[in-house]
Specification:
Shape: rod-shaped
Oligomer: single chain
Low-confidence stretches: none
Helix content: 25-40%
Distance between the termini: 68 Å
Length: 70
């Protein structure tokens, strides 16, 4: 950080467009806290989901019975 005095003892609102793993927001918050920020709040506009959380993947699909196939 080039001017730590602007951060010292301040509350910072960090806006992230997409929250994927949280690594970017976490690292930014860590740097801001080390620079002296009193609090760091993170707000995101969107969050990505793991595909397995939303859709059934082929190995999770139930097998069709022979009666349903005819």
């Amino acid at each position: 950080m080039s001017n730590v005095g602007q951060i010292s003892n301040r509350h910072v609102l960090l806006v992230d467009d997409v929250f994927t793993t949280g690594a970017t927001a976490s690292e930014c918050a860590r740097v801001l806290r080390r620079a002296g920020a009193a609090r760091v709040w993170v707000v995101t506009v969107a969050r990505t989901l793991k595909i397995a959380d939303v859709f059934a993947v082929p190995e999770d699909l139930p097998e069709e019975s022979s009666e349903a196939a005819t």
